[in-house]
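Researcher: Last one for today. Full complex below.
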Amino acid sequence: MNPIQSFLSRAFPALHGGALAGAVAGCVVACVVAVLILQALPGKARKAVIAAVTFVAGLFYALEFFLPANGQDENILTFAVPTVGNVTNVLGGMTLGLGVLSLIRIHGANVVKVKSGWENSALLLTSMVVMAVAGIKFEQTLFYRSLFRDVLNSFDAAMFAVLAFFIVSAAYRAFRIKSAEATLLMVAALVVMLGQIPIGQYLTHWLPVKGSYLSLLRLDNISNWLLTTVNAPAQRAIGFGLGIGGLAIALRIWLSLERGAYFEAKADES
Amino acid sequence: MDTASTWSHPIGVWFGAIGTLALFSLIYRENRVYRLFEHIFIGLAAGYLIKTTWTEVLGPQWFTPLFRDGQWPWALVAGFGLLFYTIFSKKHSWMSRIAIGTLMGFAAGQAFQTTASDYIPQIRRSFKPLYVTPEMIPTGSGLTTLGIGLNNLLFVFIMVTVLTYFFFSFEQKNKVVAASARTGRLMLMFAFGAIFGSTVMARMALLIDRVWFLMHNWLHLQ
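Model: Here's the assembly. Have a good evening.
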């Protein structure tokens, strides 16, 4: 156990019963006091607080990455990575409530004001509550399992299957050969699709499967080759671009250099 | 009792089948029945998200450590997380940016680690050997050293040309750079075509699965 870890375990020991209740109550009071202090801050200080917490949050991972590691590939901060990861997950999980509250506000208002389509809104809210309660409280029951498998899974698959039809109309527009690029797109898509369906494989089934250069001309082999040798490097290059762009954006956010609607909004506007 | 029957109930199958047909009715045109089942679907999906967030994140990572293991500092995390909800108050909404900034900071910090752990090894692996010896041939691949060498050469060539296409730091006036970028653009079309083909096939697989559900699970046709 490293010094930070032993200090933290001494400073924040596990509590139970009345001591735990007292500690939680203390945390609640501390949070209320913190909110009151934050609200009393002037505009510039508010911006500084936001920049500071963003920097400190990113600093943990940066330090954990840059600090030298011992023989077991760990440094003084590595022990905290799972806990910080859990904190991130918990904070991320708490944001779900924002979406749920928005749904309730919008659809609840539709129901209360009996707007057009209010019955749809009522069903949306009812099905949300039923699914959440059944999933959390009655997960092992046939009711929840059937609701998940027979209903939710079916609707989910049906929604995406409907896209197959819209993709066909999109394909009609995309496959009209007007340029070299459109031709390549059409040829690649056609070969990949034919290579994955029985009738496409049947077209070249008379060619040897292995052991001859002719096997390279089988549609399933060409389709596989297109996906692994042509598609993979192009996707990897796109991925590298995304990675570098993501790193640049991450640096800008971490150092509060980013500009835009959210970042330029003044903290003291309210 | 098999898994299928313990997860299925005739009422659920009927409801799922009617909903599937209602959702498919969009193919003809938008209608009231479609909208009704669309709303039910959104409600169920939101409810399922609440369920998974509780059972997989907030329950095991927050509630259990706090109330069962006595790790009281998790109460502070909840208080911090509640700052998100100040967004609904005009007076306090700026505080939500503290919580959002923290999440962004964590994400930014993780991006450094992702670059090192994901992208750098990928970059190293992308420069494949152009001279291939017989020991390098994967077992059962059926390819020759020449075939693998040519594939590797093509892999590197496509990756470099596509990277050139996305290189916007300077104007692509140089003939070699311009030709490389043009080739990269064509290679991208190949890749997009392959992605498009794969997507269509995935959607078709879902469609076949739905037809199977309707015929086999609902109508019991073999």
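Chain B has a mean pLDDT of 91. Chain B touches chain A through 131 residues (CB under 8 Å).
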